[in-house]
């Protein structure tokens, strides 16, 4: 599957924090995460990780839990967590900050399988929780004022490879404004993202 974009996070502020669970019986529905059955998820193999970009593709890293998540340094390992285990039937939650302009903010997320994103003070941004082949899902978030907003993202992988989660944030920065060096990086990523999205749209129109 083709990645359409890279999401960017601030290199000058705290990273996003993720938690990954293995062997989820609810895998395939992003609405059935830890808050759906806290007791069950508390007993699963799990670990936390820091991440700087929501850009995960098993075609690149491999179809293991660690490979899909770009082999981060896991911490708070629980219940025999194994980063080399298959990514099938896994569940990921990610929390952090996203900068929104006042008014409409446009996004695209590529996902295979289910995805849901909730933004504090705004509500559900996207809720496509079920199993799917790779889907390129545009959505708009309308913010009452410009600033950093806390978000939570749920992603579930099931039903075999590939796994894909790539969030384009329209050159907005997850975690706050970048420093000068990361600003140049974001500009570079944004230009590439637009080119790839354009090719995807042209292919669909053909």
Q: Could you write a compact summary of the structure shown?
A:
The protein has 206 residues and is an alpha+beta fold. It has one domain: Jelly Rolls (Sandwich).
Structure description:
There is one protein chain. The chain is of the alpha+beta class and 206 residues long. The chain has one domain: Jelly Rolls. It contains four helices and eleven strands, in the order E-H-E-E-H-H-E-E-E-E-E-E-E-E-H. The strands form two sheets. A seven-stranded antiparallel sheet has the order 4-2-1-5-10-7-8, with no helix packed on it. It is globular, with a radius of gyration of 16 Å. The N terminus and C terminus are likely disordered.
Q: What is the helix fraction of residues, given as a range?
A: 10-25%
What CATH calls the topology is Jelly Rolls
Total DSSP E strands: 11
Strand content: 35-45%
**H/E element sequence:** EHEEHHEEEEEEEEH
Low-confidence stretches: 1-14, 171-206
Radius of gyration, CA atoms, in whole angstroms: 16 Å
Number of helices: 4
Cross-sheet strand order for the largest sheet: 4-2-1-5-10-7-8
Q: Please name the CATH architecture.
A: Sandwich
Structural class estimated from helices and strands? alpha+beta
Mean pLDDT across all amino acids: 75
Number of domains: 1
Structural shape: globular
User: Roughly how many Å apart are the termini?
Assistant: 18 Å
Specify the CATH class.
Mainly Beta
Largest sheet: 7 strands, antiparallel
Features:
206 residues, alpha+beta, Jelly Rolls, seven-stranded antiparallel beta sheet, four-stranded antiparallel beta sheet, 11 strands, 37% strand, disordered N terminus
